[in-house]
């Protein structure tokens, strides 16, 4: 899965915005101003995306796939960095993006979910 496909998939989620809050090269995807994915655009040779995940499943993924590591510059318990050109299949990357988005949506206050029509 390449950077453009990942970007398009993230943007296909409801109410997602893309921003550059840290620098000019780290694309951050947010829902209701909460991050669910970070995609460094300067890693052309070995692109990766950082995604939020369930702590227990994050550990399992790291044990099963060489291309999944603790989140770079993120909370290692809750975030993984997935190398896009590795042993990780495209369907799993999409599932991980879906789960990261879901975790952030689940954590939103009820009022925000109602305002966005997510409840």
CATH class: Alpha Beta
Lateral arrangement of strands in the main beta sheet: 1-2-3-4-6-5
Number of strands: 6
CATH third-level topology: Aspartate Aminotransferase, domain 1
- What fraction, in percent, of the residue positions are helical? 25-40%
How would a textbook summarize the main sheet?
A: 6 strands, antiparallel
Distance from N terminus to C terminus (CA atoms, Å) equals 31 Å
The domain tally reads: 1
Q: Name the shape in a single word.
A: globular
- What is the tally of helical segments? 4
The residue-averaged pLDDT reads: 93
Poorly predicted tracts of residues: none
Whole-number radius of gyration?
A: 14 Å
Q: Helix/strand-derived class?
A: alpha+beta
What fraction strand? 25-35%
User: Architecture, according to CATH?
Assistant: Alpha-Beta Complex
Q: What string, H for helix and E for strand, traces the elements in order?
A: HEEEEHEEHH
Strand and helix map with partners:
Elements: H1 3-11, E1 16-19, E2 26-31, E3 34-40, E4 48-52, H2 55-64, E5 68-70, E6 79-83, H3 90-107, H4 110-116
Antiparallel strand pairs: 1-2, 2-3, 3-4, 4-6, 5-6
Describe this structure in words.
The chain is α+β, with helices and mostly antiparallel strands and 119 residues long. It is globular. It starts with a helix and ends with a helix. A six-stranded antiparallel sheet has the order 1-2-3-4-6-5, with helices on one face. The protein is 37% helix and 25% strand.
């Amino acid at each position: 899965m390449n950077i453009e496909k990942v970007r398009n998939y993230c943007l296909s989620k409801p109410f997602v915005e893309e921003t550059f809050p840290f620098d000019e090269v780290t694309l951050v995807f947010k829902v209701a101003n909460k991050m669910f994915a970070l995609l460094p655009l300067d890693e052309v040779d070995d692109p990766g995306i950082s995604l939020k995940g369930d702590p227990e499943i994050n550990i399992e993924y790291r044990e099963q796939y060489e291309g999944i590591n603790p989140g770079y510059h993120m909370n290692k318990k809750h975030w993984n960095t997935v190398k896009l050109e590795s042993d990780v299949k495209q369907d799993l990357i999409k599932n991980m993006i879906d789960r990261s988005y879901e975790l952030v949506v689940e954590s939103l206050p009820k009022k925000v979910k109602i305002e966005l029509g997510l409840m």
